[in-house]
Amino acid sequence: MHRPLRIDILTLFPEIFEPVLGASITGRARKAGLVEWFTTDIRRYADNKHNKVDDRPFGGGPGMVMMCQPLWDCVRDVESQDERPATRVLLTPQGEPLTQSTAESLAASSERLLLIAGHYEGIDERVVEALEPREISVGDYVLSGGEIPAMLLIDSIVRLLPGALGHDESASEDSFALSGPGGSRLLDCPHYTRPREWQGRTVPEVLLAGDHQKVHDWRHQQMIERTRARRPDLLAGEQAGTEEHD
Ligand code: SAM
Fold first, then answer.
1. Rounded distance, CA 58 to CA 204, Å?
2. Residue 130 confidence (pLDDT)
3. CATH code linked to domain 175-244
4. Among 143, 148, 154, which residue has the most ligand 1 atoms within 8 Å of its CB, making it the best to mutate?
5. Which range (32-41, 99-108, 231-240) has the least confidence?
6. What is the mean predicted confidence (pLDDT) over 108-114?
7. pTM over cut 0.85
8. In the predicted model, what is the mean pLDDT of the chain?
């Protein structure tokens, strides 16, 4: 049987992952043997008596900087726990933006991921240079730590693993899947469920008539119209969404 994707998360706050990742689709995927994750507290690797992992920045200024040694030792130790080479990822607002295609390429190509969550002002640049991680950002805003970004990344990858979604759910029909003209990535169409009428609002007739081809065509048209109205940038170039992955 295929081994589960192994994800190691290096963090100063290991306790916050399980309540989120243990629920819903990621929790189900773990039960199904598709993925496993392990959190490691970087603080355990501090080689000073106060378990310090951060210090004041050279040159002055506010905030603290995560020191090289604890993170370096932590990465080396965690990587030695499994013979598979890990794709190292540092969550940072300065990284490449996380997109559906990033998630797709990591889901398709990784057997093992090692995610590093920073805190404070960030991490001493020298250990980043030494580790040479792939650097990924979850958006152009700054969060307090890399834990929530790591969970975003994990969720976006795990739902793409074959078998992670139930029979009735399909990642290929979600927003940003490769489904549009010229291989573009479209937003999803609107969805409706019972009752047929709610507060005077009705469901589009085409969805009630039972003609599968018409439903398919209507949905596709809605996807294109929504994308044109809300995210024209996705349709702007035929190449949108078809960029090369490493
Ligand atoms: N001083 C850093 C800067 O301006 O680039 C921000 C540090 S931030 C307060 C602390 C940590 O949160 C970062 O080391 C990173 O791990 C994480 N983080 C914050 N925003 C993020 C984002 N948009 N994407 C990924 N990680 C982020």
1. 62
2. 98
3. 1.10.1270.20
4. 143
5. 231-240
6. 96
7. yes
8. 94
User: What pLDDT was estimated at residue 96?
Assistant: 98
37: Cα within 13 Å, side-chain hemisphere: 29
Is 174 known to be catalytic? yes
Task: Give residues (CB < 6 A) around ligand 1.
Answer: 91-94, 117-119, 121-122, 137-139, 141-146, 149
Largest CA distance in the chain: 71
Which of 91, 102, 114, 131 has most ligand 1 atoms within 8 Å of CB, for mutation?
A: 91
Determine contact, residues 201/190, Cβ cutoff 8 Å: no
Q: Domain residues of the chain, as ranges?
A: 5-158, 175-244
User: What letters, b where the CB count within 10 A reaches 16 and e where it falls short, cover 23-39?
Assistant: eebbebbbeeebbebeb
Lowest mean pLDDT, pick from 37-46, 146-155, 167-176? 167-176
Percent of the chain scoring above 90 in pLDDT: 88
pLDDT greater at residue 213 or residue 239 = 213
Task: Give the residue among 5, 9, 163 at the shortest CA–CA distance from 84.
Answer: 5
The helix or strand, by DSSP H or E, that contains position 234, with its residue range, turns out to be helix 232-236
CA 232 to CA 172: how far, in whole Å?
20
In 3D space, the residue among 179, 187, 180, 182 whose CA is nearest the CA of residue 238 turns out to be 182
The yes or no reply on domain 5-158 and CATH 3.40.1280.10 is yes
Q: Does residue 238 carry a pLDDT above 60?
A: no
Residue 63 has pLDDT above 50, yes or no: yes
Place of tokens 């190691």: 8
Query: Whole-angstrom Cα distance, residue 246 to residue 242?
Result: 13
